[in-house]
C-alpha cells in the first residue's frame, strides 16, 4: 500500500514537522485519513487524536473555524488549529488582510442560501451566477478566464481539466449547503495559516507566502488542494484581482 500524496505529490511535505521520526519510511502507509479516507505515510500524515493527511489538514482547520457545524462531532479534531494560527500570525500582515477580505466574500456568498431546486441547477456546468460557496465552479470560470485549456496556457498545470471545477464546486456546495458560515477576526490568522499549510502540498515553491497568492488553477498540483481550500484560494484571487464577482 502506498501513500496517496507520495503517489501524486512528488517530494513535497508541509514544512511544519510535528511528528516524531519514523522507522517506516514513505511511501509505506501509517494510516487512513479520517477526513478523506486516503492512505498517508509518516511524512504526509499526522495523528493528534485522529490520523489526518497533509491535503486535509488545512481544509479541516478552515472548515472547523468558519463552519464547525459542517464537521460531524465524531470527526471533530481541533488539533491542527493552534499550528495554523501560529503560522498565520507569523505571516506578513498584508497576506492576513487579503485573507480577511477573502473570508468576508465567503461569508457574504454563504449567506445567500439557495433552495434545493436551485442547488440542482448549480450542479450543471455553466449554470447559475458565480458564488464562492454555492456555485464555486462558475466563480472559478469567471476568474480563470479564457482559454481554459490549461495544457496550452503557460501559467497553468497540464493535469487540470475544466470539468474538475464542477467536481470541486459540488463538494463545497454539499459541505456548506446547510451550514452557517461565520467569520470573526480570530478566524483570520487561523485560515491564513491553513492556506499556507495547504499550498505547501499543492504548489511547488520554496515561498509559501507567494504561493498563497497563486490561484488554484495555476498551482503545480491543483488536485492536491482540497476543495475547501479551492474556495479560500479562489476568494483570495477575487480580492487580489480587485474585481468582485457578482454573488
Ligand atoms: Zn507520503
Ligand atoms: Zn485526507
> How many helices does DSSP assign?
10
Distinct small-molecule ligands in the complex? zinc ion
Q: How many β-strand runs?
A: 4
Task: State the separation between the terminal residues, measured CA to CA.
Answer: 44 Å
Whole-number total of structural domains: 1
Low-confidence stretches: none
What assembly state would you assign to the polypeptide chains in this entry? single chain
Query: What is the ordering of alpha helices and beta strands?
Result: HEEEEHHHHHHHHH
Strand content: 5-15%
**What would you call the shape?**
globular
Which class of secondary structure composition applies to the elements? mainly alpha
The helicity comes to: 40-55%
Q: What Rg is obtained from the alpha carbons, in whole angstroms?
A: 17 Å
**Mean pLDDT level:** 87
Main sheet makeup: 2 strands, antiparallel
Strand order of the largest sheet: 1-2
Structural description of this entry:
- This protein has 247 residues and is mostly helical.
- The chain has one domain.
- It is built from ten helices and four strands.
- The chain has helices spanning 4-8, 54-66, 81-90, 93-111, 116-122, 136-144, 162-176, 187-202, 208-211, 227-241, and strands at residues 29-32, 39-41, 45-48, 50-53.
- The strands form two sheets. A two-stranded antiparallel sheet has the order 1-2. A two-stranded antiparallel sheet has the order 3-4.
- The longest helix is centred in the middle third of the chain and has 19 residues, at 93-111.
- The mean pLDDT is 87.
- One zinc ion (ZN) binds at residues 3, 5-6, 26-27, 40-41, 43-44.
- One zinc ion (ZN) is lined by residues 33, 35-36, 38, 52-53, 55-56.
Amino acid at each position: 500500500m502506498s501513500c496517496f500524496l507520495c503517489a501524486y505529490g512528488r517530494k513535497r511535505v508541509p514544512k511544519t514537522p510535528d511528528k516524531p521520526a519514523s522507522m517506516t519510511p514513505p511511501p509505506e502507509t501509517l494510516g487512513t485519513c479520517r477526513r478523506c479516507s486516503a492512505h498517508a505515510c509518516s511524512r504526509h500524515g499526522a495523528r493528534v487524536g485522529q490520523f489526518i493527511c497533509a491535503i486535509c489538514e488545512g481544509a479541516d482547520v478552515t472548515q472547523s473555524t468558519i463552519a464547525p457545524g459542517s464537521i460531524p462531532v465524531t470527526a471533530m479534531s481541533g488539533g491542527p488549529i493552534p499550528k495554523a494560527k501560529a503560522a498565520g500570525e507569523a505571516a506578513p500582515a498584508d497576506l492576513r488582510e487579503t485573507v480577511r477580505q477573502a473570508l468576508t466574500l465567503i461569508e457574504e456568498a454563504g449567506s445567500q442560501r439557495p433552495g434545493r431546486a436551485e442547488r440542482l441547477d448549480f450542479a450543471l456546468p455553466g449554470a447559475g451566477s458565480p458564488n464562492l460557496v454555492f456555485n464555486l465552479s462558475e466563480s472559478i470560470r469567471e476568474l480563470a478566464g479564457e482559454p481554459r485549456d490549461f495544457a496550452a496556457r503557460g501559467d497553468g498545470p497540464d493535469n487540470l481539466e475544466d470539468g474538475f471545477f464542477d467536481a470541486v464546486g459540488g463538494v463545497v456546495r454539499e459541505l456548506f449547503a446547510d451550514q452557517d458560515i461565520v467569520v470573526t477576526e480570530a478566524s483570520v490568522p487561523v485560515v491564513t495559516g491553513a492556506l499556507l499549510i495547504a499550498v505547501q502540498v499543492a504548489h511547488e515553491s520554496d515561498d509559501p507566502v507567494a504561493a498563497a497568492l497563486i490561484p488554484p488553477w495555476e498551482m503545480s498540483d491543483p488536485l492536491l488542494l482540497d476543495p475547501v481550500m479551492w474556495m479560500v484560494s479562489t476568494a483570495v484571487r477575487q480580492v487580489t484581482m480587485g474585481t468582485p464577482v457578482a454573488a
